[in-house]
């Protein structure tokens, strides 16, 4: 790290290393069929999240599907007019499904990243410094553990108008404790290793030691928990929306399910229930399957030879 | 004072402090809520100012915020939760049956799943790489990561709507008017309503226990003490029993933590099944801005988690000699 190289060469080397990493990861996931299937689902989901709203034939909320005579088609099973059927309010289920992926993606991605980043930082600082810093931060995580997530989130969302960024922020505020604890315990073991000690002995500052010597060694577990964070955030967002505390201006999968449930049409309108329900179940499961494949490699305790 | 006693004392002090902070956070959040449940009464125009003041005084809302805070702390710590504004009943009278309904659904489910999933997990871990292991991991991952209300919806559609084996909603049929807990819970009608939510709860909780047990056994598989047991000529199953026994600790602690969270009910599960538990009651109370009910419910939930956390820490420190009891206790 200390050898001076030209900036461009360094850049190329880095890009090359990055590419190799990506390719290695891909090859790794190919070995595990479940994780590979998960990856395909995630890719399809990201695609839907980015382009879904443009693919939707109709506006998910404004447009009302009408039959030949101009009458509103309410609760009709899938047909040529509406491929996935219509809702009790005469809206196109397919369009809602396509548009509904976006809020799920936004909250999942940013909620997960926020959870991971916050938890990672707290974990590294807490584990590295120890002492009163550690004590303070760990009691803070205890506090967020004892304040139940769902009730607190519901309370907060009653006096702040729910919007998608607020929901993302609330989710990250309550979930960072998970990665924080795990990362901290990893740091505790890395901290005492020889290379960290020698870095400090040779005069590296605390910040430098943390950034260059400790953090890279706990990064894998940080990434793993970021992935789990994504799944948790998606589940939390869907749950909040299902209870009626979602962003009222956006169609999301959770909100679709709420509407079926609240309108009492679950019994008949299977075409209205299945798309969002399968969508949410598929994406959360896929993220976890990918995470598990990595956990087998990252978690040193289950890495015994078979 | 022994090391362990000092550790115990410190943990206890921390728990008390945590309770205070959690309670204060709940207080602040609740006071931030706009409007009050009386606004509906006021705007309906049926009350004059005098009557409004009287009611506000009755609930102590005319006092300064500090006074309210002190009163609130005092009343919570003595378990005097006050009156539910919308149900005009003491809060505890509203919450107690709901809490019991939640516990009667979730405690048996948690115990069942802790035993079944752990045994299955140990067996899967012992046969690492087998088809059973892979299948059990995929299915529990599916059940654990899917939000519980979606699993519940699928089960309702299949078993209640299509196969019509069990009812989809509620805890008893509309005509049933049981008296007392015994009559409520010991009846075929209750069992009939109980089956579906119970099954979903068992499946939902199964994932973590299965994975913990499986990882524990996988971790122990190569260890020396098992080699000794093998050399002694124990059968595979006897070896597994010993490996399993040695990976019980994380499962036990996890069980304790989960038990603490059970007081929150599975809010979504209760909503979907219209199960009259504490989680569903809380959602209703929040929607109707029934402060006293909300703060009592959240307090009970927070307290249960704090106590369970304490219990888990102490269990761990007591049973696992490698956990240091002098510091904050490393992972």
Automatic annotation (TrEMBL), chain A:
Broad class of the protein's primary localization: membrane
Q: How does it sit in the membrane?
A: Multi-pass membrane protein
One GO term of the biological process aspect: transmembrane transport
Using the record's annotation, list all stretches that form the ABC transmembrane type-1 domain.
101-291
Residue stretches spanning the membrane: 34-57, 105-129, 149-176, 218-245, 269-290
The question of whether Cell membrane is a record keyword is answered with: yes
The entry's keywords:
Cell membrane, Membrane, Transmembrane, Transmembrane helix, Transport
Origin superkingdom: Archaea
Q: Which Pfam families match?
A: BPD_transp_1 (PF00528), OppC_N (PF12911)
InterPro entries according to UniProt: BP-dependent_transpt_permease (IPR050366), MetI-like (IPR000515), MetI-like_sf (IPR035906), OppC_N (IPR025966)
Subcellular location(s) of the protein: Cell membrane
Gene Ontology, cellular component aspect? plasma membrane
Belongs to which family? Answer: Belongs to the binding-protein-dependent transport system permease family.
The entry's protein name is Binding-protein-dependent transporters inner membrane component
Write down the species.
Answer: Natrialba aegyptia DSM 13077
Organism placement in taxonomy: Archaea, Methanobacteriati, Methanobacteriota, Stenosarchaea group, Halobacteria
Automatic annotation (TrEMBL), chain B:
Database matches in InterPro entries: BPD_transp_1_N (IPR045621), MetI-like (IPR000515), MetI-like_sf (IPR035906)
Any GO BP annotation:
transmembrane transport
UniProt superkingdom:
Archaea
Major localization class:
membrane
Q: Where in the cell is it found?
A: Cell membrane
What residues does the ABC transmembrane type-1 domain cover?
Answer: 99-312
Instruction: Show which residues constitute the signal peptide.
Output: none
The UniProt keyword set, sorted, is: Cell membrane, Membrane, Transmembrane, Transmembrane helix, Transport
Pfam annotation, one family: BPD_transp_1_N
Q: Which Gene3D superfamilies match?
A: MetI-like (1.10.3720.10)
The annotated topology with respect to the bilayer is:
Multi-pass membrane protein
User: Under the cellular component aspect of Gene Ontology, which terms does the record hold?
Assistant: plasma membrane
Transmembrane segments annotated in the record for this chain: 12-33, 103-126, 147-170, 190-213, 251-273, 293-319
In which family does this protein belong, per the annotation?
A: Belongs to the binding-protein-dependent transport system permease family.
Q: What is this protein called?
A: Binding-protein-dependent transporters inner membrane component
């Amino acid at each position: 790290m200390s050898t001076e190289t030209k900036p461009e060469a360094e850049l190329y080397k880095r890009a090359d290393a990055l590419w190799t990493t990506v390719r290695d990861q891909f090859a790794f996931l190919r070995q595990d069929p479940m994780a590979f299937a998960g990856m395909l689902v995630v890719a399809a989901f990201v695609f839907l999240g980015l382009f879904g709203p443009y693919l939707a034939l109709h506006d998910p909320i404004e447009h009302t599907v009408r039959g030949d005579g101009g009458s509103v088609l309410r609760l009709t099973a899938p047909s040529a007019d509406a491929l996935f059927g219509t809702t009790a309010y005469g809206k196109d289920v397919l369009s809602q499904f396509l548009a509904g992926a976006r809020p799920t993606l936004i909250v999942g991605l940013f909620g997960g990243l926020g959870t991971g980043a916050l938890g990672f930082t707290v974990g590294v600082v807490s584990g590295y410094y120890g002492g009163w810093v550690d004590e303070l931060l760990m009691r803070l995580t205890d506090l967020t553990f004892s304040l139940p997530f769902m009730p607190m989130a519901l309370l907060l969302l009653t006096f702040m108008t729910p919007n998608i960024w607020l929901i993302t922020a609330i989710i990250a505020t309550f979930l960072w404790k998970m990665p924080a604890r795990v990362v901290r315990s990893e740091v505790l073991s890395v901290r005492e290793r020889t290379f960290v000690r020698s870095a400090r002995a040779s005069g590296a500052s605390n910040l430098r030691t943390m950034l260059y010597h400790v953090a890279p060694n706990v990064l894998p577990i940080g990434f793993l928990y970021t992935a789990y964070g994504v799944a948790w955030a998606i589940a939390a967002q869907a749950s909040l929306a299902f209870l009626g505390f979602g962003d009222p201006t956006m169609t999301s999968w959770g909100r679709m399910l709420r509407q079926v449930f609240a309108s009492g049409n679950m019994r008949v309108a299977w075409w209205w229930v299945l798309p969002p329900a399968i969508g949410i179940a598929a994406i959360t499961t896929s993220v976890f399957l990918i995470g598990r494949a990595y956990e087998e490699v990252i978690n040193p305790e289950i890495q015994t030879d078979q | 004072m022994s090391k362990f006693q000092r550790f115990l004392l410190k943990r206890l002090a921390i728990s008390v402090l945590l309770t205070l902070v959690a309670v204060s956070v709940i207080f602040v959040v609740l006071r931030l809520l706009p409007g009050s449940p009386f606004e509906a009464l006021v705007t309906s125009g049926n009350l004059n100012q005098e009557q409004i003041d009287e009611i506000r005084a009755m609930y102590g809302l005319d006092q300064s915020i500090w006074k309210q805070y002190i009163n609130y702390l005092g009343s919570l710590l003595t378990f005097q939760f006050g009156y539910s504004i919308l149900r005009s009943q003491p809060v505890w009278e509203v919450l107690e049956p709901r809490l019991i309904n939640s516990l009667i659904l979730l405690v048996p489910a948690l115990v069942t799943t802790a035993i079944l999933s752990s045994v299955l997990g140990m067996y899967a871990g012992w046969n690492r790489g087998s088809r059973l292991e892979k299948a059990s991991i995929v299915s529990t991952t599916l059940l654990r990561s899917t939000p519980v209300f979606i699993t519940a919806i699928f089960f309702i559609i299949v078993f209640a709507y299509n196969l019509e084996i069990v009812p989809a909603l509620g805890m008893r049929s509309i005509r049933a008017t049981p008296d007392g807990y015994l009559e409520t819970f010991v009846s075929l009608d209750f069992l009939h309503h109980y089956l579906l939510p119970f099954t979903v709860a068992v499946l939902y909780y199964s994932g973590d226990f299965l994975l913990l047990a499986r990882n524990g056994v996988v971790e122990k598989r190569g260890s020396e003490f098992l080699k000794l047991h093998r050399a002694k000529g124990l059968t595979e199953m006897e070896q597994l029993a010993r490996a399993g026994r040695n990976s019980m600790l994380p499962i036990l602690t996890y069980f304790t933590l989960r038990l603490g969270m059970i007081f929150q009910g599975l809010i979504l599960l209760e909503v979907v099944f219209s199960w009259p538990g504490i989680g569903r009651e809380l959602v209703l109370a929040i929607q109707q801005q029934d402060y006293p009910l909300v703060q009592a419910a959240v307090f009970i939930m927070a307290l249960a988690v704090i106590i369970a956390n304490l219990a888990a820490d102490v269990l761990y420190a007591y049973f696992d000699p490698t956990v240091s009891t002098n510091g904050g206790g490393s992972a």
